[in-house]
Amino acid sequence: MTDFSTSTAPADVVRRQYLASAARDLPALRATLAPDVEWTEMAGFPLAGTYRTPDGVTSGVMEALGADWDDWTAHDDAYVTEGENVVVLARYTAVNRATGRPLDVRVAHHFVVRGGLIVRFEQFVDTATVRDAMP
């Protein structure tokens, strides 16, 4: 049996990324990302754009979300894997700090994993639902 914590299987790498994110463990999250990672947050999302490097992703996305939202969590529900591609159907939950409004929205994430590291990420989410919880 493969050790989940060290497996380079694409779905295992992605799962470690979700666990690290939920635990707010940024060093562990960075360890799942390739040095040349491209992380794209969807147009219309508050942090829309493409972030590069593990530090760029964690500071530009994870730390920024943590500054504006309490308990921001991506709950990974289902995985579809084909080769190096992993699509995760998930849900974001959080409470906006400025408004106190809760967020509960379905999302899809597409990851590309090579050599045991995430090289690309693309987010798909109902951005209007996210913005409705914001000031």
Descriptive report:
The protein has 135 residues and is of the alpha+beta class. 29% of the residues lie in helices and 45% in strands. The chain has a six-stranded mixed β-sheet. Strand 3 and strand 4 form a beta hairpin. The radius of gyration is 14 Å and the shape is globular. The mean pLDDT is 95.
Could you outline the blueprint of secondary structure elements for this entry?
Elements: H1 10-22, H2 26-30, E1 33-41, E2 49-52, H3 54-68, E3 69-82, E4 85-96, E5 102-114, E6 117-125, H4 127-132
Parallel strand pairs: 1-6
Antiparallel strand pairs: 1-2, 3-4, 4-5, 5-6
Strand order of the largest sheet: 2-1-6-5-4-3
User: What value does the average pLDDT take?
Assistant: 95
Instruction: Tell how many strands the DSSP assignment holds.
Output: 6
Estimate the global geometry from the Cα principal axes. Answer: globular
Q: Quaternary arrangement of the chains shown?
A: single chain
Proportion of strand residues: over 45%
Q: The biggest beta sheet, please? A: 6 strands, mixed
Q: Which class do the helix and strand fractions yield?
A: alpha+beta
Which value, in Å, is the CA radius of gyration? Answer: 14 Å
Number of helices in the DSSP assignment: 4
Ranges where pLDDT stays below 50 over 5 or more residues in a row are none
What are the defining features of this structure?
135 residues; alpha+beta; six-stranded mixed beta sheet; 4 helices
